[in-house]
Amino acid sequence: MAVQMRDSGFKYGLMTRLLHWTMVALLAWQFAGMGVKLIVGKAPITAFWVGTHKSIGVVLLALLIIRAGWALYNLKVRPADGGGFWGRAALAGHLVLYALMLIVPASALLRQYGSGKPMELFGLPFIAGGGVETAWMTAPANAFHGLAAWVLLAAIAGHVLMVLVHRFIWKDDTAARMMG
């Protein structure tokens, strides 16, 4: 049996599922790290976990760009959100998730670039840093990044809740399309 790489009207293909579940794991890592930071404070485990935050954030942004491109490539063949109120709500919910997954890391990169400080990704130089802070870049990102991240977490919780509603209340096959 051949592996279905592309989406179809009935289920998501391997590439879509791989991108989705990889991002799920990395987002879980990001939020768990921030949760540990809030609960434990400064500790060796916090330093390690939070030390990966920027690198993982950039990976998530790259995966989102790939995922959005792949979704557009598959737009005409992927499973439909459905019609009526719930279909429009599903479409709106997915657009909000994509927007927040773009805004959160993009605002962090704007803040980092505007800080004038260098940035490494997994120990490799990524942003050289100019040494001078640019307030119009750092101020909005400082105010927005954390708040948008927690809104993203709430949107993810809503997404998971709707998966459970589909599976256990409406008993349809919507969740199975992404499970594989």
Give a summary of the structure in a few sentences:
This protein has helices at residues 14-40, 44-51, 53-73, 84-115, 135-169, 176-179; strands spanning 119-121, 124-127. The chain has 180 residues and is mainly alpha-helical.
Salient structural properties:
single chain; 4% strand; 180 residues; mainly alpha; two-stranded antiparallel sheet
Taking all Cα atoms into account, the compactness measure Rg is 18 Å
Helix/strand structural class: mainly alpha
The largest β sheet comes out as: 2 strands, antiparallel
Residue share in helix: over 70%
Number of strands: 2
Distance between the termini: 14 Å
Helical region count?
Answer: 6
Overall mean confidence score, pLDDT: 94
Order of helices and strands: HHHHEEHH
Strand content: under 5%
**Morphology call:** elongated
Low-pLDDT runs of 5+ residues are: none
Strand order of the largest sheet: 1-2
Explain what this protein looks like in three dimensions:
The chain has 180 residues and is mainly alpha-helical. The chain has a two-stranded antiparallel sheet. The two termini are 14 Å apart. 12% of the residues are buried. It contains six helices and two strands, in the order ααααββαα. The model has no long low-confidence stretch (mean pLDDT 94). A hairpin with a 2-residue loop joins β1 and β2 (124-127).
Give the arrangement of secondary structure elements.
Layout: H1 14-40, H2 44-51, H3 53-73, H4 84-115, E1 119-121, E2 124-127, H5 135-169, H6 176-179
Antiparallel strand pairs: 1-2
